[in-house]
Amino acid sequence: MIPIEDIIKNYRTFDDATIQKIALNPKGLRKEIVDVLNDEIARRNLDLGLIEWVKVETDFYEGSEIERLTVDIKSTICTNCNLETELNGYRFNTIYSFIFGASTEVKHQIICAKCAHEKRLRSMFLTSICGWWSVHGLFATPISLISDLFLLNKPEKHSEEVINAFIEHNTGMLRRIEKRNGKLDSLIRRFNGIQQTDSEELFN
Questions:
Q1: CA-CA distance, 61 to 107, in Å (whole number)?
Q2: Superkingdom of the source (predicted)?
Q3: Could you give the angle at the alpha carbon of 166 between the alpha carbons of 165 and 169, nearest 5°?
């Protein structure tokens, strides 16, 4: 582990743009490094809003907080059909093959069971049409289709994983939403990729 004295020296050599970049994505920083970062922001007279952002981004949800937030997320309207029904996290895999290779498109969404069923059918259809045209696709496509077939009418086994990833990756925005009574469904909509939502819209 790098001594904190060396970390302080390294941060002193960074330009303002680098400090701002680190501050905007501080996840994974140890607490003592967060303190060094905040001291550097203050020393350089940078936007003090960065310190507040670092604080909320590193204030991770734990235990009962995650349980409460998960209930709130699952109780939000489905951003795909706009109906009030229980939501879960889903993972959709679509295989696209070419003569010289193949790729798997992976999408994560938090939506209702009905919309998930429709999206899985669409993903299976695209895989069945586009997945066979490479050596890799010949093996991967039937495995993917069989797996999706079993998931069609069953609870999503990846639900907890997807929702926890959503919470972890959006810690700062979720903290601000709680503090400013913002719109959880707007953040979920952005996560689902249904539309690009500016951060300001989350609080209108």
A1: 24
A2: Bacteria
A3: 80
Residue 107 host element (H or E): strand 101-112
Helices of type H across 14-77: 16-24, 31-43, 49-57, 63-74
User: In this structure, are residues 141 and 131 in contact, taking their beta carbons and an 8 Å threshold?
Assistant: yes
Per domain, the residue ranges of the chain are 4-57, 61-204
DSSP letter assigned to residue 78: P
Chain center to CA of 140: 26
This prediction has a pTM of 0.78
**Opening angle at CA 60, ends 57 and 62, nearest 5:** 165
Q: How confident is the model over 138-177, as pLDDT tens digits? A: 888 898 898 888 887 666 678 999 999 999 999 999 998 8
Say how far apart CA 93 and CA 22 lie, in whole Å: 32
